[in-house]
Design the sequence.
């Protein structure tokens, strides 16, 4: 067995092992009570406005954060997928104002909207990863966080359309993420490369776990704001 094949297998094994470890946390996020409340139209307009403002702050921070790690790893093959993450942030950021304005929140008010600490911990953790972590940390973590976020955001989209009568354009922020699905096979070469450079598999797994814990914290914060 060549070293390249061995590293590739270890990357896929790491992804699979991480999935098994994260499964209970994934279930907590994708079955969150906030999603049920939205589907039953038990989330008020003011609470939906807070969802819009916190996502504005999160995605705005994401652009800055991911740009930082792109600059740190621009000399390595991982720059390709890291830059794709960055470009996706620009695309989804442009969809937030239409969602906010559909709720009666002018786009010019978004930058000044208060941040909720519990909702923003996810964003602040990404800042930490992009400043101090390695490319493999972010790539493995995004493999799983994108999966749960896409699943949840599509449920939000359906509720906004069916229960709150938003148009497809107004709710598109939550629909557009489905174009950015990841697969084990796509991310594994970059994780393989990080492992081959001696990056810590344990650190990558811990980063993935923490990111999902902060993702859960975001949904908990939205539920608390909505009183559900």
Sequence:
């Amino acid at each position: 067995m060549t070293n390249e094949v061995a590293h590739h297998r270890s990357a896929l094994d790491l992804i699979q092992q991480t999935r098994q470890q994260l499964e209970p946390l994934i279930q907590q996020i994708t079955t969150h009570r906030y999603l049920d409340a939205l589907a039953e139209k038990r989330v008020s307009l003011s609470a939906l406005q807070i969802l819009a403002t916190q996502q504005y702050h999160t995605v705005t921070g994401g652009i800055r954060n991911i740009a930082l790690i792109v600059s740190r790893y621009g000399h390595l093959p991982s720059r390709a997928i890291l830059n794709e993450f960055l470009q996706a942030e620009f695309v989804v950021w442009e969809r937030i104002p239409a969602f906010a304005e559909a709720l009666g929140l002018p786009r010019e008010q978004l930058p000044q909207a208060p941040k909720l600490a519990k909702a923003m911990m996810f964003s602040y953790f990404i800042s930490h990863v992009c400043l101090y972590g390695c490319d493999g940390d972010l790539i493995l973590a995004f493999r799983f966080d994108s999966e749960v976020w896409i699943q949840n955001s599509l449920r939000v989209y359906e509720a906004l359309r069916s229960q709150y009568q938003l148009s497809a354009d107004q709710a598109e922020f939550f629909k557009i993420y489905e174009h950015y699905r990841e697969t084990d096979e796509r991310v594994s070469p970059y994780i393989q490369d990080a492992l081959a450079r001696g990056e810590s598999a344990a650190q990558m797994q811990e980063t993935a776990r923490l990111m999902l814990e902060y993702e859960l914290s975001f949904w908990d914060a939205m539920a608390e704001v909505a009183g559900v």
User: Anything to note?
Assistant: The domain at 3-223 is CATH 1.20.910.10 (Heme Oxygenase; Chain A).
